[in-house]
Every structure is written in structure tokens, then in C-alpha cells.
Amino acid sequence: MISIEVHSAKHSYRVLIGSGLLAAVAAAIGQKLPAKRCAMISDTNAGPLFAGGLAKSLRSEGYEPKLITVPAGEKSKTLEQAGDICEQMVSAGLDRESFVIGLGGGVIGDLSGFVAAIFHRGIPHVQIPTTLLAMVDSSIGGKTGVNAHSGKNLIGVFHPPDLVIEDIDVLKSLPLRELNQGFAEIIKHAIIADAEMFRELEGVASPDRDWLNQSSFPELIRRNVELKARIIERDEHERTNYRALLNFGHTIGHGIERATGYHGLMHGEAVSLGMVAACRISIEKAGLPMEERDRIVGLLHKFRLPTRLPKNFPREKILDAIKFDKKFVHGAIRFVLTPTIGSANVSSDVTMEDIREAVNLL
């Protein structure tokens, strides 16, 4: 088992990575939290696969989990859904001495973390991510939240988890498309901060499910968790623009998601498209060499991620959505550019016209 310590302003927490960890969840929680009553928040994708076994394991160790299942998908990330979960927790007799387990992908992690942050003004949160994307990205860092009608993640709070448990075995149940979208965030990390990892990904012979069984796979997860952890430790609340580097590809990616009504494209697929557009802008604004842009697009292709929008895609809807992006400050966009693979910076010189041109070329 790999154990990584992440430091936040509130407390430090461990990220555990390995195989067969679901069976050891109770023991891991017991080392960190004294409470025995919890809400286990999951969705209609992860819940049927893992919630029953996890609840049984917890009960065998004296825990009292209350399973709350929400519909899978981005549309569950609402204030209304968070309020309904809180009402169910109150009805189940949970109080400030309880804790929350988030069992699922990024949507569940964001939603369960937000619920943990607001229930009785804040109770502990345990993240058990069940997708690759959540393991390497959204489960780390303490960002929680729900969507507003105008945009994604506009309502939320920083509430670091108390423990993150990443069982590599759960990834074996994922459809290949779900697995591939997680690699969008891994490729993003390589672009902004790890040129060596980018070259190693280029050298992967066949990025398929068999890779999960190789000894190098947990190490890849570790490298990504540590990379993100070191970034957020320097700028946990995104006040110096350093943590904002993690938003590479996300400004336009979130706009694409909203333009689809959160249907048809997965988050990682939208981020892949956003990175292609960000590379186009980086060529003009940061001097990214065209051959490096082509390497990035080629690597996204290799992991079966989209790099072009359909011709009839409503591109104006993307631009309308970007205007409400939380990365706007005083009307100016903080846009992440890459001058070369392995490096990134935040620029205030990117205009909506630059973004429009890049989106039109997708």
C-alpha cells in the first residue's frame, strides 16, 4: 500500500493507494475518526457495485452507515440535492458527531464533500473515489461544491477530506471510455508540471485495461496524487494563481460541458477538447511550439480522447457559458497557458476573442 500525506490549512490527511483497500476501510477510518455513525453517499453507478459490500464491512466493525443514493451524473450536483441529502441525514439521526463517506466519482466527491462542509457547519469527510479521474484529481485538495444554473462549481467551499482511500481494484469494473477520461487529467498534469511523465505516457504501448494489472499503474497514480498535492499545498485556496495551473483546459472544457447540458461528453473528454483549444491559444500567447502542440494532440488521441468538436456543435453556447466561469476575476479571465510541455502559467492577456477563435477551430 502507498501512503501519501497531504497538508492543508485545517489538518493533514492521508491518501492510501493500493489493491483490496475496500475491505480495510473500517480499520483505516478507525485510525483517524472516533465516530461510528456516518452517511455513505453514492450514486446509481457506484452504489450497486460497491455500497452493499462496503456497508456490510463497516457494520461488522461496529459502524452504522446510512446509505444515500443519488442519480448518477452532473445534474445531481445541485443545492436542492445537497439539501435533500442533509434532510435524510437528519431523519436518520445523524449529528455533528457523525461523518460522511463519498463513494463514487468526481460528482459524488464534490457533492458529498459539500454536504460534509455544511451539515452542522462541518463534519469529517472520507473520500473513496471509484473512477480514475477522481483518484488522480477531484478527490485531492478539498474543493467541494455544486453547480448553479449559470455555471459549474459556482457554489462551494474548501473542506479538505480527513482520509482518501483509493482501491485500484475498483477501476477494473469501469467501462474503457470511463477509464480513458481519467487519463485526460493525468495528461493535463504532465503538460503543466511533468515533462518526464508526458514522455513516459507517449511510450505506453497499449493504454488498455490490462495496464491496471501492471505494477507500474499504482506508481502512476502516486505520481499524480503527489503532483497535485504539492501544488495545492503551495496555494490551497487559489490566491496566488499557483493552484490555478490545475485548471489547464478547464475554462473551455467547462463551457463545453455546459453547452451540452452535461449530456453526451464526459468531464475528461470536455477537458481534452479544452486542452486542444488552450494549446492553440498557447501557440499565439505563450510561444508553444507547433510540434509540441501536435505531441499533445497525439497523446490525447492515443488515449482515445476527443480532439475535435462535431461540425454542428453549438459553439456560441460554449462562449456564453465561459462568461460565467468562476475563473473570471473583475471581468478578466485567468487563462492557463503552456509555453512548453512540463510548464504552465496563468495569463490575464487572453481575450474572449482569442477563446472564440480557438473554439471555432475545434
In CATH, what is the class of the largest domain? Answer: Alpha Beta
Oligomer kind: single chain
CATH level-3 fold name of the largest domain: Rossmann fold
How much helix, percentage-wise, in residues? 40-55%
The radius of gyration is 20 Å
Secondary structure tally: strands: 13
Strand composition percent: 15-25%
How does the major sheet shape up? 7 strands, mixed
Tally of separate domains: 2
Look at the helices and sheets and give the structural class. Answer: alpha/beta
Question: Any idea what the CATH architecture of the largest domain is?
Answer: 3-Layer(aba) Sandwich
Helix tally? 13
Q: Specify the overall morphology.
A: globular
Poorly predicted segments = none
Strand order of the largest sheet: 1-2-9-6-5-3-4
Element-by-element helix/strand order: EEHEHEHEHEHEEEHHHHHHHEEEEH
Descriptors for this entry?
single chain, Rossmann fold, Dehydroquinate synthase-like, alpha domain, 44% helix, 362 residues, two-stranded antiparallel sheet, alpha/beta, 13 helices, 13 strands, 20% strand, seven-stranded mixed beta sheet, 2 domains
